[in-house]
Amino acid sequence: MTVRIAIDCMGGDHGLSVTVPAALAFARHEPQAQLLLVGRAADIEGMIGRVTDLRDRVQVRHADEVVTMDEPPAQALRGKRNSSMRVAINLVKDGAADVVVSAGNTGALMAISRFVLKTLDGIDRPAIASVLPNERGGTTTMLDLGANVDCTAEHLLQFAILGSSLVAAIDEKERPTVGLLNIGEEVIKGNEVAKRAAELLRASPLNFHGNVEGNDIYKGTTDVVVCDGFVGNVALKASEGLAQMLAGMIKDEFTRGPLSRALAVFAYPVLSRFKRRVDHRRYNGASLLGLRGIVIKSHGSADAYAFEQAIRRGYEAARHGLLERTIAAMQPFAIQLAAQPSAQPNAEPAQPQPANDQPRAAAA
Amino acid sequence: MTVRIAIDCMGGDHGLSVTVPAALAFARHEPQAQLLLVGRAADIEGMIGRVTDLRDRVQVRHADEVVTMDEPPAQALRGKRNSSMRVAINLVKDGAADVVVSAGNTGALMAISRFVLKTLDGIDRPAIASVLPNERGGTTTMLDLGANVDCTAEHLLQFAILGSSLVAAIDEKERPTVGLLNIGEEVIKGNEVAKRAAELLRASPLNFHGNVEGNDIYKGTTDVVVCDGFVGNVALKASEGLAQMLAGMIKDEFTRGPLSRALAVFAYPVLSRFKRRVDHRRYNGASLLGLRGIVIKSHGSADAYAFEQAIRRGYEAARHGLLERTIAAMQPFAIQLAAQPSAQPNAEPAQPQPANDQPRAAAA
Question: Do residues B106 and B32 make contact, with C-beta atoms less than 8 angstroms apart?
Fold first, then answer.
């Protein structure tokens, strides 16, 4: 089965110098992949001109404009209709690509994806999901990681459905377990939203495990961990910071004196195996879920290896029919979601109007 | 200067078997410390009977009852007036001790401390603060870590004042920097409460650095990181989970085969130095801030070494006059805090009445 992947080549901290080599490497590794490289055509052609063996599977689509990394989402959405990001997303909307991958500005990617692709029926807001390694040797899928900071219990239920569908599709698990991120032993067990969300989840057909705590993410207690985007973002970034500090300390200890440096030489194979196991680049590629199309967000600072992993994540999602499976998984919830007070029909007008142009998430 | 420390000897997962040896070890290390061991007197006397050299500085106070680790706070508060926890807190209230240390049930400790000691003027809710190691080789003080899950911007301002006072006292820093935990690059920069809190902090006399992200905790970007208790608790526990997973993986890699095991022997001194540096037991002992008395909460699972660190934290707080300094630091905020809509005078009645008996935090 051929998978057509649109790549926003201008996005990310490093732009073309990372995205194009990563795309070519992926095309070489994956003969079923067809790539549409979107951005300044002359520059991209200049980079791939000498590559002859892949040209039937690697095409270039020109886009004049570039969304910068710090551009306000609303400006990127309204002011740059010919950005590489938007053109790439349009390819998914028009059915020319099965998935889009971008390392660009998260806010803009979310806003444009939402405006162009629209959300699925029953989904108010898209969510950002990512996988984290766990003690069991598998991965834990966590969402939302920053798209929605003020969430209702109904939003958390929607995230749970989306995350569960993602794991069901990609990992081919029948009924992934879902945990609601909460606080445990301390004074009060959870805030009001978390309490109500637990009730909704318990009443749903999902395989709801119950509340989980921060450490359960890495224990792998459940396949999916659901939380609001503020909490998820803080937990993710605190983890990144801690991992970086610990890596620095290990390096520090092994370079502290001649003896330690000598030991480091001996310990090198073991340490590098450890390093490979926890390499965050392997887990690069977050999914923007809840849209009528598959959108993958790479870390902005990704190198070519990391960006290739994000492309792979998009490829796997499309190959496993994530979108169709999510829509099917939504069916049992149709009545429940429609009954929720916050569930709004997906009624963005085809023609942008000022009030609706800006996605709800960014307006919150 | 003598510091009198009341110790709830019955608290924690291990009770007397951890608290009493830790207390004796601390008394040996710190000739300025006077310890009041609270709990079942016969059992404690049985354990310290043969210790003759410390008896002038180690006294026993009997308490019949024990607050269990899973007891609802309200029940511990109303039903067990002669618990070791309550008797120990009473010693602080009555001026017989300068600080109380407990490894017991967090919710009960918070509820009883709040009821017995009351909050400081201008403080609505006590907060839990702890220190975490950072890349700079120092520590970052973070609060709240789970006492308050639904916070207003005014509460976050109060936490900032309390955390800043703590660092000023213990680390003898003139004007500690304060960061507000928030989310960065993603779609929206922070929720509504965080936005308003940033305004309040900017207008305050605190040394406000601005927003920080999860990774800044371990970078040591600011001396103090302020957040609501839900976010703080999740970030802390996610960090604990990640650290545990990484430690397990390192161990795993070094025991994977005969060669790796041999390398581990060589690398042992370096790895154990690393382990010592990140040993979470060294950072044991959270401060319950905002009360009219110094209360230190040890991790429930603490061993004797860890519990001794918690006693040390209490000792240092009392020795540095944390309470007096906090009250002094509150002065410039008196008008600002009184003007906040959520600031309520500290008007719990001396005689418990049903509606007020339960502390506000637990009633949320």
Answer: no
